[in-house]
Design brief:
Number of helices: 5
Mean pLDDT: 82
Helix content: 25-40%
Structural class: alpha+beta
CATH superfamily of the largest domain: Pleckstrin-homology domain (PH domain)/Phosphotyrosine-binding domain (PTB)
Low-confidence stretches: none
Strand content: 15-25%
Shape: elongated
Number of strands: 7
Strand order of the largest sheet: 1-2-3-4
CATH class of the largest domain: Mainly Beta
Largest sheet: 4 strands, antiparallel
Length: 161
């Protein structure tokens, strides 16, 4: 991933993906006030191995758009932006930043998936990869794999060529 580190900037902080960890940094006046007042919202460094999910919620009539990192040993907040506002692992963002947060979500989830891959004992020859891609596509078409699962495995297979 040559475009690392990648940062998505929100209204109360920013998320940076380094390739091996996710950094949550508080920005702006309100971010600084909350951080130094002892009300939480401090800076965090979360290793990829600890991340279990990413929650990216678009803005709605009642809620602001937000990005939440859910990781081992941490309780995920459920509900709208009121609960998320008190979560140290969340950053609010506006419509103009949606593409950056979509991109960083994909980058993080790809890294999480790669970190959970079993150790390779033998690699498939490059002749087998097109056949494996065809089988993978068939599984997606049959509904066995989700689009995200398909894309993760496809990238993995193409990287072996």
């Amino acid at each position: 991933m040559s475009n690392l580190p990648f940062t998505a900037k929100g209204s109360n902080g920013e998320i940076t993906f380094t390739g091996s960890e996710v950094l949550i940094r508080r920005t702006g006046l309100f971010g600084a006030l909350r951080q130094f007042s002892g009300m939480g919202k401090g800076n965090k460094d979360i290793p990829i191995s600890a991340i279990s999910a990413i929650r990216l919620e678009p803005a709605s009539l009642l809620n602001k758009a937000f990005f939440q990192v859910i990781h081992a040993g941490d309780l995920a907040f459920r509900g709208g932006s009121t609960n998320i506002a008190n979560d140290d692992n969340s950053v609010f963002f506006g419509k103009g930043s949606n593409a950056d947060f979509e991109q960083i979500k994909k980058m993080i989830l790809d890294a999480v998936a790669a970190s959970h891959q079993p150790a390779k004992t033998s690699s498939a020859s490059t002749e087998d990869i097109p056949a494996m891609l065809k089988k993978l596509s068939d599984l997606k078409d049959q509904g066995v794999l989700t689009e995200d699962e398909f894309l993760i495995k496809k990238v993995d297979l193409l990287s072996r060529m």
